[in-house]
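Could someone model magnesium ion with this protein?
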Amino acid sequence: MFIALLNCNANIYFANLQKYQNSTGNTNTNNDTMEKLRADLHTFASIRDWRPFHTPKNLAMALSVEVAELTEIFQWMKGEESHDVEDDIRKHIAEEVGDVMIYLTMLAEAFDLDPLICAKEKMKLNQKKYPAPEILE
Ligand SMILES: [Mg+2]
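Reply:
Sure, complex below.
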């Protein structure tokens, strides 16, 4: 039952990912690394002279605002409705996920952290804190 639930969620995830990639024409490639994203963000901000405004405090606040914008999309939606949204809403979700990723990446960079490594390390801690239940046969 537990494994079936995981497989079901994974299938929904991959179906939605495929739908998003088909609608945007974007697929993640090996060229889209965290390192390249960090470099692109650094260049984008530098040529606009925005770097002085990117203090950790400001980046954390901007991240919080973008998470709120993402959350607002789902405000008042019923839980089941949030699984299958219209294409324009999916596009809006993608834009806000992008904003969140941008500010998260910039905030992490301010502390010389890689968000992917942070997530992997946190998953290890979570695995210890919340061990998988015994699977009944
Ligand atoms: Mg936004």
